[in-house]
């Protein structure tokens, strides 16, 4: 196999594996009532200051309508609280249950990165970071 085929196969398999493994790792008995998409909304809301729906939709790259559907479900399940500042601006904040889900998801990502970084020296880590940044730039062109 040439380099193109190897890279193509690796990227396709990696993308699919990340989605599959992430779902199995983060959707545990404690969080069985949410999906990976829900978990990414929780991640976008974050644990810092309350975030506006507009900021969250931009972070996720989804429309306000799509985000509203996901938010409505997470509010009903007790992961998020929405606080309207006025009729035009709505802020979202994680509940304690949402913070717990956020930390669980964050731990998965930390374990994933630690697993990769443990096997790389500084030069290899720099090359990997540069390569993945170029890939991110490529994907950014398609948005």
| Total beta-strand segments | 3
Q: What is the terminal-to-terminal distance?
A: 31 Å
Describe the global form: globular
Spans of 5+ residues with little confidence (pLDDT < 50)? none
Largest sheet features: 3 strands, antiparallel
Kindly provide the radius of gyration, computed on alpha-carbon positions and rounded to a whole number of angstroms: 18 Å
Please indicate the percent range of residues in DSSP E strands (runs of 2 or more). 5-15%
Strand/helix succession: HHEHHEEHH
Rounded mean pLDDT score: 92
Structural class: mainly alpha
What strand order characterises the main sheet?
1-3-2
Per DSSP, the total helix count is 6
The level of helicity is 55-70%
């Amino acid at each position: 196999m040439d380099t193109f085929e190897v890279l193509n196969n690796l990227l396709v398999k990696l993308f699919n594996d990340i989605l599959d493994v992430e779902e199995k790792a983060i959707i545990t008995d404690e969080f069985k009532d949410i999906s990976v998409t829900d978990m990414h909304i929780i991640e976008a809301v974050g644990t810092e200051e309350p975030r506006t729906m507009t900021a969250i939709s931009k972070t996720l790259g989804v429309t306000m309508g799509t985000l509203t559907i996901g938010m409505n479900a997470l509010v009903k399940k007790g992961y998020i609280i929405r606080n309207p500042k006025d009729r035009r601006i709505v802020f979202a904040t994680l509940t304690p249950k949402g913070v717990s889900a956020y930390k669980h998801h964050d731990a998965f990502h930390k374990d994933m990165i630690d697993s990769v970084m443990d096997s790389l020296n500084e030069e290899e880590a720099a090359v990997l970071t540069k390569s993945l940044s170029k890939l991110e730039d490529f994907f950014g062109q398609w948005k």
